Request: fold
Amino acid sequence: MSEARIHAVTVPKWGMAMDEGTVTVWHVAEGAAVDAGQELLDLESTKIANAIEAKRAGILRRAVAGVGTALPVGGLLGVIADANVPEAEIDSFVADFVVAAPDAEGEGAPRTATVEVGGRAIHYLDLGVGEAPIVLVHGFGGDLNAWLFNQPALAERGRTIALDLPGHGQSSGDVGEGTVAALSGTLLGFMDSLGLGAAHLVGHSLGGAIALAVAVAQPGRVRSLTLIASAGLGPEINASFIDGFLAAERRKDMTVVLGTLFADPALVTRQMVDDVLKAKRIDGAQAALARIAGACFPAGRQALDLRPSLADLAVPVQVIWGSSDAVIPAAHADGLPASVTVLRLQAGHMPHMEKAAEVTRAILAISG
Reply:
C-alpha cells in the first residue's frame, strides 16, 4: 500500500516513559477535508495532553479511535486519504494495520547516557543522527522531559540532544555558583565532552539565558539560537512562581504553582505534579534549586541582562513567546533587533509544550 495514497495517523512517543495515549477529543469530523498541519485530535499521556496534527492534506476517511480510547505508542488513531481511494481499500488498510515494534537498538534510537563535565555528572538523551545537532536546554526546575513533545519530531530530521542541567533531573546536584555564567560554562563543557564543535542551541526560560550566554562567549560554537520565553532579556520575573516552586511540598500546592506555567492550567496532570515533587526530593536538589534561584533571580528580579548582546550576534536568532506568559513578561520580546525573528503564540510560559508543533516547525526552519 503506497504511503502517499493512504496515511496512518498514529500515537506518537512523547518521552522515554510513554507507553500509550488516550483520545480526549476529535477536532475534525470523519469525512472532512484537512490541511497539512491542521489539528486533528487531542491525545493525553500521563504527562500532559497535546494535539496531533495532520502530516499531509487529504480527507479524514476514518477516525479509528473514539474519545476515551487508549492505544499503545504506534497505535492507529485515524486514516487520511484522497477521495479517489476506494472504501474497500481503506477498510483493508485499517484491518491489516499492525503496530510496529519499537526499534530499541537501531541507528537513531533513543540513547540515555551520562558524561562528566568539570567533575559533575551530566545526564542526557541523544536521539536521531546527523551533523550539527540541536541541543535542547530546559528551564528552572525542569529536566530533559520538557522537550518530550519536540525532540522526537526534531530527531526525524537530525540528531537532537536534551540534557539535564546541574541540580536538575538525573544530573549532579553540584551547581557551583549557580549563575548563568557558571551554567553556560557547564553547557560548553558538555558540548566538548560529546565532541560537538558547533550546534543549534534551543533554550527555554533560564535555559534560554544559558544558551544566549554561550552564543555571546563562544559565537563559533552556535549555528543558530532559539530562545523560548527566555530569561536574560528583561529584569522582570514572577517571583511568586519561583518562591512557590521552591516552597511547594504537597501535591495541592505544586498543582497551583505548575498551573502558572500554562495558559490552560488544566494541562497540569497528577503525574506531572508527582514527577516534579519526586525530583525535588532527590538529595541535594532543593538546595541546588535555591542556590540557582538566589544567583539568577535575586530579590525577585533577573540578575543578568543579555538583551544588548543580541544585536552583535552573527548567527540566526529567533525568539518565541506565549502571549499569556505569567512567569516572564511577553513584552520582553518587544523592541528586539531587526535581525531577531519573533514568533508570538497563544500559550503561557511553556509554548514548546502547549504549541509543540508550531515551535518544532520554527526550530526546524532556523536549523535547516
About this structure: The radius of gyration is 21 Å.
